[in-house]
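Example record used in the benchmark description.
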Amino acid sequence: HSLDHEHILSGILRCPLCGSGMYGNVNRKKKKDGTLYKDYFYYACKHRRLVDGHKCGYRKQWSEEKINNAVEEVIRKLVKNPKFEEAILNKIGSRIDTEEIEKEIEGLEKQHRQLTGAKARLGQQMDSLDIMDKFYEKKYQDMETRLYRLYDEIEGVENSIEEVKNRLLNIQQQKISEENVYQFLLYFDKLYDKFTDLEKKEFLNSFVEQVDIYEQEQPDGRFLKHIKFRFPVYFGDRETQELCWDNESTVECVVKMVHF
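Model output (structure tokens):
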């Protein structure tokens, strides 16, 4: 650990064997005169137990600088694409389609009004019963049973309204989160290098969900295998949440765009 250093992709980078998050570590050695060599920061697998009970055997240590730079370069290539900027600007401020959810809320609220109205009318009927009527007790019990049933139905509808409204709120908050990330991406190339390691880590965690690598560097020098983003990204004429170097339909476009 170093006070000035953050393991930027810790947990996001995945072990190529067991798929668990790889975590940052530091190799710190002393020289004969007691001074320290330059810290070497690396990502390594925690060797979690697999389904068969054995521990993951992946021992390779990847330089944090090498992995971080490769992922950053992918994003730089994306944001420098003119079509990417055009698509981002179209995305920002665009209206999210919540019509179905709003109709669902409207229907539930109408149902709630009908039930509360029925409850009020039933209460009035109970108050107006003739206590001298020989069937008073039976009528009152029947109405009371109906009243309790209405209370249960009203509670169920209220719970449904709250659940649907929370769903709508989550969609709206997700939209805001996406727009914040998109706004930053427009200025990524100008701002990213000025960030502290902690700020870089926070941003990449908000934008990148998962980074997969090959077990070893490929003959052509590539080692990134797959990047999954939390929000859609744009390149060429496509919108996607994933870049996969194993996908033949994707690899040609991405390889032309990104060289390591």
